Amino acid sequence: MATVRNKRENAKAGPDTTKGRIKTLVERRENDAHESGALTKAFANAAVWTSKQCGKASTFAAAAAIIVFWAITGPLFHFSDTWQLVVNTGTTIVTFLMVFLIQNTQNRDMAALHLKLDELIRVNELARNIMLNMEDMTEEELDAVKKTFARIAGDEAQPRKAG
Q1: For residues 148 and 157, what is the distance between their CA atoms, to the nearest angstrom?
Q2: How many beta carbons lie within 10 A of that of residue 122, not counting itself?
Q3: Cβ(111)–Cβ(29) under 8 Å?
Q4: 161 DSSP 8-state letter
Q5: CB 35 within 8 A of CB 27
Q6: Sign of CA dihedral 44, 32, 9, 16
Q7: Which helix (H) or strand (E) segment is 6 a member of?
Q8: Of 24, 104, 131, 140, whose CB neighbour count within 10 A is largest?
């Protein structure tokens, strides 16, 4: 019980504690969002709206209908280069824009996931608090943590000798 109380007291202490690190991380992400300004806010709003719309069955049906319409008009345009260029250009533009949309969605989802995991690590008294900021570690630091866990897993896999 003393460790839980000490952990809670430490969580209130400041930036060197787990709660302080989480607060610092959240503030840093909020500052990054505020610094970018109106363009970033507009893009974020558009990305959220677009990602919701793109995930609907009706949007898929509309895209499929456009392709069917394009295919039906082929004979009218004698399957010309211009006819082919229309669909090629359209799909290229949509694909190009979707790359940014998907990246924005993944960034948002990963930030939320990291914060949720950070909270779970913070409240678990057996968890290692070093895990809170793993996304900010270098490759070498991540490799060292991975080796530590591989060693622990190997030690736990070894049969224990009785008494």
Answers
A1: 14
A2: 19
A3: yes
A4: P
A5: no
A6: positive
A7: helix 2-11
A8: 104
